[in-house]
């Protein structure tokens, strides 16, 4: 009985699990189907195309969504000044408070432009400047509003300027705020006070630059502010210096 059991016991490696065929033998494994490789290539191409079109849609819709969100928030914010008054009167019309706010701002501008309005505004400003903490906030905000004001007074930005800063071959955008005469032994030198913003518009450095070394581009004050606030994304492709009859200096001498 023991001999019969020994004769019938056969190692598993000899029989194989598959009728004697080795699954790890590359010669005996079935070749990959060409349809599967084509299917993988099509799936990869479709995935790449879908992801690319999705990112294109995000790039297109992102500025639209931001513009819509900011505009909607601004309308609701301005509308909130007068909408509670209309609600108490029983008038529920969306946008009526926004229109009323715009008309209120317009009539304030008309009133302040008159002599009586300017006097009232001066008294209010005098009172605000006597307040300990509020006067600093008011002064900073007034400088920013004066920079974009249509009335070109002494506190507004005069011109957009390009100066050589911080080293040779590099230039910085700035705004000419005033001019000063530097008295020397031989001759006087005219210097321009150029404000170069380092944090949008309310923080920056002041440089006194010779008026002949300043490049005055063909850009308005609003265009210069848009370039700085946008981080240079609204920069025009070509910038040409303004031709002035008093100081026509070749650009290669300045640069």
UniProtKB/TrEMBL annotation:
InterPro entries: COV1-like (IPR007462). Residues 1-38 are annotated as: Disordered. Keywords: Membrane, Transmembrane, Transmembrane helix. The keyword Transferase does not apply. It comes from the Eukaryota. The chain crosses the membrane at residues 54-75, 95-123. This is Protein LIKE COV 2. It comes from Vitis vinifera.
């Amino acid at each position: 009985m023991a001999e019969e059991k020994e004769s019938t016991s056969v190692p598993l490696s000899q029989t194989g699990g598959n009728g004697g065929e080795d699954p790890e033998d590359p010669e005996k494994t079935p070749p990959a189907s060409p349809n599967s490789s084509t299917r993988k290539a099509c799936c990869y191409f479709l995935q790449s195309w879908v992801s690319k079109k999705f990112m294109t849609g995000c790039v297109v819709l992102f500025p639209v969504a931001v513009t819509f969100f900011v505009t909607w928030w601004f309308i609701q914010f301005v509308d909130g000044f007068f909408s509670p008054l209309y609600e108490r009167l029983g008038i529920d019309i969306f946008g009526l408070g926004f229109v009323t706010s715009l008309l209120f701002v317009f009539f304030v501008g008309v009133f302040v432009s008159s002599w009586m309005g300017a006097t009232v505004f001066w008294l209010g400003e005098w009172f605000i400047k006597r307040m300990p903490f509020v006067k600093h906030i008011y002064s900073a905000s007034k400088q920013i509003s004066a920079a974009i004001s249509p009335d070109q007074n002494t506190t507004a930005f005069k011109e957009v300027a390009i100066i050589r800063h911080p080293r040779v071959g590099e230039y910085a955008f700035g705004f000419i705020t005033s001019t000063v005469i530097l008295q020397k032994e031989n001759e006087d030198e005219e210097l321009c006070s150029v404000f170069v913003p380092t944090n949008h518009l309310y923080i920056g450095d002041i440089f006194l630059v010779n008026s002949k070394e300043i490049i005055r581009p063909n850009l308005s004050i609003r265009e210069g502010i848009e370039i700085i606030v946008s981080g240079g994304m609204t920069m025009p492709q070509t910038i040409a210096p303004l031709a002035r009859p008093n100081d026509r200096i070749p650009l290669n001498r300045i640069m």
